[in-house]
């Protein structure tokens, strides 16, 4: 066991466990040294067996230049101005889906399965984000 003033490091087999006791030690660990903690470990079952058919995601990829580019692209697409620009699309598609649910259920008198409406909402929204296509 290694110890600093407000943090402790233990080894449990081949795993390292760090315990931070104070706000300052947590800030130093997670904020000041964040680049040292960004990578994900390579796990045999997930990265070899599962990922052979599913592929890596941004959150499960080991840190490399490709992951760095993908995270930067995601951050650009999800910043406040970008998300605000998506709202008219979400508003329009929501309005259309709710209107169609209401009308197709004969103004709420008949039960209908909403799943196709949700699926069309998802397809239209993603398509509109990509290339402004619409599947009404």
Keywords for this entry:
single chain, elongated, 136 residues, mainly alpha, three-stranded antiparallel beta sheet, 3 domains
Describe the structure in your own words.
The chain is mainly α and 136 residues long. The protein has three domains: 1-37, no CATH class; 42-77, no CATH class; 80-131, no CATH class. It has helices at residues 23-32, 44-54, 65-77, 80-104, 115-131; strands spanning 2-3, 7-12, 15-20. It has a three-stranded antiparallel sheet with strand order 1-2-3. Strand 2 (7-12) and strand 3 (15-20) form a beta hairpin. It is elongated. The mean pLDDT is 80.
Residue runs with pLDDT of under 50 for 5 or more positions: none
| Radius of gyration of CA atoms, rounded to a whole number | 23 Å
- State the major sheet: 3 strands, antiparallel
- Number of discrete domains: 3
Relative strand content: 5-15%
Quaternary form = single chain
Structural class, judged by helices and strands? mainly alpha
Molecular shape: elongated
Overall average residue pLDDT: 80
The helix count comes to 5
